[in-house]
Amino acid sequence: MKRRVAGAIAAFVRRQPLGAVGGVLILVAVAVFAPQLAPHGPKETGFAPYLPPSAEFPMGTDQIGRDVLSRVVWGARLSLYVGLTSVLIGVTLGAVWGAVTAYVGGAPDSGSQRVVDSLMALPPIILALALMAALGQSVNNVVLALLLLLVPTAARTVRSVALAVKQFPFVEAATAAGCSHARVIVRHILPNCLATYIVLVTTNVSYAIVVEASLSFIGAGAPPDEPSWGGMLTAGTQAMENAPWLVLFPGVAISLAVFGLNLLGDAIRDLADPRLRGGLG
Amino acid sequence: MKTRALLIGLLCAALAIPVAVVAQDKPRHGGILNWFDYGDPGRLDVHAESPLVVQQATAGVYSGLLHWDPDDPSKIAGDLAERWTVSPDGKTYSFHLRKGVKWHDGQPFSSADVKATFDRILNPDFKSPKCGASLKPLVASVEAVDAHTVQFNLKAPVGYFTGAIASAWCRVAAKHILDKYGDLNRPEAQIGTGPFKFKKYDRGSVIEWEKNKDYFIPGVPYLDGVKQYILVGGPTQVAAAKAGRVHLWDAWPPMRKTQADEVKGARGEEVEVYRWPINTIFVLYMNSKRAPFDNPDMRKAVFLAIDRQELVAKALEGAGVPCAVLDPKLVGDFALPLDEVIKTPGCRQSKDADLAEAEKLVKKHHPNGIDVEIAVRQVGNYVDRAQLVIAQLRKVGIRGTLKTHESAAGYASFGKGDFQMIATQDRAMDGTDPGDVFHVVYHTNAGSNYAQLSDPKADDLIDRAAKETNKDRRKQLYHELQRYILTTGTTGAVPVGWVEGYFFRDKKVRNFKPGLTVYDGNTFMKVWLAQ
Fold this sequence. Notes:
The complex is a heterodimer of chains A (281) and B (531). Chain A is mainly α and 281 residues long. Chain A has a single domain (20-30, 66-274), classed as MetI-like fold, CATH 1.10.3720. Chain A has helices spanning 2-15, 17-31, 68-104, 106-121, 124-135, 139-166, 169-176, 181-192, 194-217, 229-236, 245-272, 274-277. With 531 residues, chain B is an alpha+beta fold. In chain B, 32% of the residues lie in helices and 23% in strands. Chain B is built from 18 helices and 19 strands. Chain B has helices spanning 2-15, 52-58, 111-122, 131-135, 161-165, 175-181, 234-242, 257-267, 296-305, 308-315, 328-331, 338-341, 352-365, 382-394, 407-415, 436-442, 456-467, 471-488, and strands at 32-37, 66-68, 76-78, 81-86, 92-97, 139-146, 149-154, 196-202, 206-211, 225-230, 248-249, 271-286, 320-322, 370-377, 398-405, 421-428, 493-506, 509-510, 528-529. In chain B, strands 11, 12, 13, 14, 15, 16 and 17 form a seven-stranded mixed beta sheet that branches. Chain B has a four-stranded mixed beta sheet with strand order 1-10-9-8, covered by helices on one side. In chain B, strand 6 (139-146) and strand 7 form a beta hairpin. The longest helix of chain B is centred in the last third of the chain and has 18 residues, at 471-488. Chain B starts with a helix and ends with a strand. Chain A binds chain B through residues 43-45, 49-50, 63-65, 136-137, 219, 223-225, 235, 237-243, and chain B through 234-235, 238, 258-259, 261-262, 265, 310, 314-315, 317, 378, 381, 383-384, 386-388, 390-392, 394, 401-404.
């Protein structure tokens, strides 16, 4: 078993080196979940403000004397929390919604797709802003706003896959054998949408991180004292010329995290796509 | 008054501030002065509002009976009043009005307008947080003696009455406009007698004035108009300053040192950067009508826990006077000596004893600590200040969560008492009297008594000091009052410090003289732009 897993990982690295790099970057990001890595508390203000990067403060201190490294580390935690939570819940809900309506078909499917159309018609950042204005600033409200952005996209994508799966003979056979609708959906439709689901999850985590950073940047995301990369960028713009490290490090952190996640998402998409897996050309 | 004027003069000299940017050339007519507001005023009623942006938006449009002299900002001068007399008992002030003054819509100005204005402001049912809060305790009635004479009957003789009347918030509005609109909120209601006419208000974008060619002082204003861009947030304001899109930065929020350095670096010799005390106190409020701060012990705990020195050092980058209820630089020996102030509880360093006592007080009522919502308006660097406050309170078991408000929405919320704590509010003084801060912040009827505290002892001292005409006795009363506020620590308004800051003036702007309060010196009636 161990040998098979190791073999699969080795094959993945060989065939998708960039994806592996992305995976490593994500692992690094996940590693910063450990609060022990941060030298100080993210809200600890006990240091002099605007200290440039040094051995004591590798990323300097911010405008009110907080260690930027500690905030970047804790910011990774917040970004991944928002990204993973919103995407796992949002894509799962959307996938179930899409699969069920595709299977049921008819008026319920048509009706639900109009709801999806309505939600997708709204510009994502405007919808998120409106929700944050209504709900108030908190990390969990950012997750809620992201859910509303992610669910319709996932529902539309998985529905299209489920519509194809529904036509396969094994679904017809299961129905003929007397399986209930619920069983057909859970045992046959959903598992065959799994590849799409995984791709949706991996590609949307970076999207969620960018939306969270964008909302925080414009002051509508996480509360200002939370160590959000987007919020740190906003605060950093107050003294960009005199203290460029305030925008540099959170900016690099966002870029690396999104880059890594996109590479991983692309690699998984390639693996999940039979046309690419077969090595076209 | 003379002592204060002297002190202020010395201060200006000491700080090498261009209080008198002396005209080296002949005034030039024409040009538009570009300025900015830190937020969108929304409402424009100068009698009913208190945000600086409201006063700024209308500053050049209205005139007062008196004003702080644009030629010498430390002196009070007649504006709509040509002259004034005081009765021997000091209780009756008669103002003799200029003749031939016209409102911007062409209607003639008369004493009926003055009476309508001050009857409105003094109406007990009318909430007037600036002019009303200052005048209601002083004025019994206003009478129009004839078309060009108005008489103010005071409840008791007070030396600072002319200073209160000269406040930039006590501007005279037209009776026919008040009758027509009921208030002064709308742009179309901005009909004044000032040097500029209100031309345009694009919400969230720009406010424009244009020259009043019929202004009652011949030859001024020199400018064709003033544009006030609504620039929200430090980076936007600094970017506009660096790009030369605004001619001066003279109002709140002041620039911090790092921002001033950026502007100077970008504009070089085109601008003059100076440091200036803006007669503004940085206050932290606790709502004494809501838990947990309805409990005096909890108010005391916060009072002890707040590290004023850290807040001034970090949030104001050192440009301020920590702990003081009155700033000696501004009011001379009416202020407690700073040597005494820095030894008071909450201010003394190190903080160890105060923090231990604060923690004990919190634990006494909330053994597991307590969660508190800390409100703040998203203006200036208030959010940074609030984060420092949260970090300081965490040390004594008060866990703060930040609730941010848009500027006008914050004021509305604070006015209704819809908060537990306000992390920071800068309260600008309306005048230069030592009593101002108490009438603005600490008296039960103070316009900015957001703590909603009614402290009979504080009120009594404030009222007695206001009416006291003997300078030494008045000084003693104010000293007693400051000691009371600094040692009880339960008044619900923590005086964090007096704010100073950095400002700039484009050298093309001539004859601009910064006011002694943040509300004065911004009518631009005698300012001109060099070629």
